[in-house]
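User: Please fill in residues for this 488-position structure.
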């Protein structure tokens, strides 16, 4: 179920927001601690209960548990007691106040525990202490300081004996808000719009429904995700989730902001992840934690995909073939091929590695240009090609010029890795950046009459190949392209 909290400051505003929330929510939480003045709060409870079309949770959170109520404890509890007398569907009582509440009538009691600083290590103990008070529903909400805190919440949910609401707050807690149903959690909270969050890290109803298809998630849903840091702006969740739905697969893909790759790769085996995309900065740092690696990926020395089979994670690099296919398709339009072309690659990072190895196999004559010369030297040694410093690029004659650095990427869209005067009409210019789709480099190249290739096809192809590796199903490339273009 999706619960939308109402944090309005008056009864009128509350009733109006409840009407909007009713269109999307299965249940509504009335946060009466946001209503100033005791009498106003009382009126708000009475009128809301009369006018609601959805089940209501009445909550009056004190400041000590992250709420807004700053009156006396007696006044706070009197409002909750009144909600019980009025037979509200659900009343949320903090664990440390439960003994002071008289539980007559039909209201279901949620006994809640919040920790805004961390996810404590004695979650099991907290859970059993709450259960001693015979809750109808247990609610344990903590703060995630590391992605693995969510995994402890999932383990708690898996062993729950009573209907339970549990997830982590904060940006790192997003996955437990999205995946709670998979592990048995009965509801998640989502805000109607940005800026109306009642707790840190709440997603909007739109995000939950349109990107993660929250209502379709169940205990059988297969889990996938993108490992990186940062990942909040990644387009991969939107693309892969749309593809899963299009192909009728019961799977969901979530962003995983990982600081410590080693500890995540150990802990993630406790829950059933089927595969991952890997992005900056973990494409190389993840290698020691794999059970196996595909031959091409091993040669490249970096992966962007993990596939789990028989409990073992194998690494793949789909960037390599995605770049080669993208370039080949584009050249084919001019009846041209990659064979034996002179190629200048700017950059010596993960993308450059994948592309250089791919083009070497096509017989290209490659030179690597990089700001940090040592890195260019290392890559050229591994690929068996030439290298030079970026300042020297004008001295080299190339048929294909490829930018693999982030120069020109949003928001620095006016930057370009090379001056316009080194571009020649006969060149093919490929920029791996896809945001913006047309970079300053590509604009300059077009003005010089060059054939240009943007990073979009590489991006789509690497995601499509991941989808194929995970599912053995032909990816819906047209839809994936439409999703990316829509976002961009
Ligand atoms: P990376 O491993 O961190 O490498 C970054 C490269 O860019 C390094 O060679 C670095 O040079 C160079 N660089 C960065 N800022 C620079 C600057 N201000 N001046 C000169 N050189 C600079 O990153 P990556 O994984 O290769 O990704 C690089 C870009 O490719 C990103 O924009 C990413 O979004 C894009 N990408 C696109 C696709 C796609 O599917 N289209 C796939 C993968 C990556 P130093 O060695 O001197 O630091």
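Assistant: Residues filled in for all 488 positions:
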């Amino acid at each position: 179920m999706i619960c939308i909290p109402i944090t309005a400051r008056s009864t009128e505003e509350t009733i109006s927001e409840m009407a909007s929330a009713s269109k999307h929510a299965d249940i509504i939480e009335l946060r009466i601690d946001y209503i100033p003045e005791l009498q106003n709060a009382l009126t708000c409870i009475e009128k809301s209960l009369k006018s609601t079309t959805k089940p209501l949770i009445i909550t009056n959170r004190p400041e000590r548990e992250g709420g807004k109520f700053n009156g006396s404890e007696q006044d706070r509890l009197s409002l909750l007691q009144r909600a019980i007398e009025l037979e509200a569907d659900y009343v949320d009582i903090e664990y440390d106040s439960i003994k002071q509440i008289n539980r007559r009538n039909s209201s279901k009691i949620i006994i809640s525990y919040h920790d805004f600083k961390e996810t404590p290590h004695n979650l099991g103990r907290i859970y059993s202490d709450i259960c001693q008070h015979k809750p109808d529903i247990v609610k344990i909400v903590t703060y995630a300081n590391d992605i693995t805190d969510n995994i402890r919440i999932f383990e708690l949910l898996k062993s729950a004996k009573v209907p339970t609401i549990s997830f982590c707050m904060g940006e790192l807690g997003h996955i437990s808000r999205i995946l709670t149903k998979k592990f048995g959690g009965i509801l998640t909270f989502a805000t109607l719009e940005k800026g109306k969050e009642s707790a840190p890290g709440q997603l909007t109803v739109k995000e939950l429904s349109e990107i993660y298809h929250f209502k379709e998630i169940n205990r059988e849903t297969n889990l996938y995700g993108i490992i990186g840091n940062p990942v909040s702006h990644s387009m991969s969740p939107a693309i892969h989730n749309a593809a899963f739905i299009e192909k009728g697969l019961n799977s969901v893909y979530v962003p995983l902001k990982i600081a410590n790759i080693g500890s995540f790769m150990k802990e993630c085996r406790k829950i059933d992840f089927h595969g991952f995309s890997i992005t900056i900065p973990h494409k190389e740092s993840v290698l020691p934690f794999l059970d196996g690696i595909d031959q091409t990926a091993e040669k490249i020395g970096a992966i962007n995909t993990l596939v789990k089979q028989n409990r073992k994670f194998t690494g793949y690099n789909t960037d390599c073939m995605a770049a080669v296919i993208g370039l080949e398709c584009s050249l084919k339009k001019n009846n041209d091929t990659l064979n034996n072309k002179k190629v200048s690659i700017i950059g010596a990072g993960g993308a450059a590695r994948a592309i250089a190895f791919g083009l070497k196999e096509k017989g290209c004559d490659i030179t690597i240009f990089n700001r940090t010369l040592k890195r260019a030297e290392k890559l050229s040694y591994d690929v068996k090609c030439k290298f030079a410093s970026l300042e020297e690029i004008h001295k080299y004659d190339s048929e294909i010029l490829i930018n693999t650095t982030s120069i020109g990427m949003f928001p620095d869209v006016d930057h370009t890795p090379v001056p316009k005067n080194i571009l020649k009409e006969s060149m093919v210019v490929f920029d791996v950046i896809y945001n913006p789709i047309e970079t300053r480099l590509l604009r300059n190249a077009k003005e010089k009459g060059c054939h240009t290739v943007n990073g979009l096809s590489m991006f789509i192809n690497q995601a499509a190949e991941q989808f194929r590796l995970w599912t053995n199903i032909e990816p819906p490339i047209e839809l994936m392209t439409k999703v990316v273009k829509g976002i961009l």
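For context: Residues 226-317+466-487 form a domain with the Rossmann fold fold (CATH 3.40.50.10860).
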